[in-house]
């Protein structure tokens, strides 16, 4: 099993757990749990593969990804009531998923020889779109769009780190590890210490 495949599996598992936890907040049935978990788990990677014209899409080629996500949903369905502050768990698990999915998307684009801008965009898409779909479907405020919070910027910084490391002739594996470390470090700092970007504030019109 390749390093990129391992990243995809890890991303699917952790994003599926976040999807199932959000489904528990919405009080869905077991099928709803599985649907939201699978949507979250493979949403970003699906968009990545379609945009990169990778055939077949990763989870169509290997249905074990869907089985893993559905299994994670089943486990959360019977254990979610034991978890206090589920939203806190969602936020932290999502940060780990982001730090795995961004290197997975970045690595997939690098393996296809795409230019740096596309590599960065694919890392960002893989890391953020599944969680965005999850929150929209479950009527939650999307983490990716919370006011001033570091999220997309973490994905971008991580992917740029990988591209820069490759340009500096670092091997792909260490470059992707650096990508994940930067991504998670920034996201964790945003959660734990309130790091944020400046937010636009409209000014009243002059009289």
TrEMBL record:
Residues 6-80, 92-164 form the Glycine transporter domain. The keyword Magnesium does not apply. InterPro entries: Gly_transporter, THDP-binding. One of its GO terms (cellular component) is plasma membrane. Keywords: Cell membrane, Membrane, Transmembrane, Transmembrane helix. SUPFAM superfamilies: Thiamin diphosphate-binding fold (THDP-binding). The chain crosses the membrane at residues 6-23, 30-51, 63-83, 90-111, 117-137, 149-168, 174-197. Belongs to the UPF0126 family. This is Membrane protein transporter. It comes from Phaeobacter gallaeciensis.
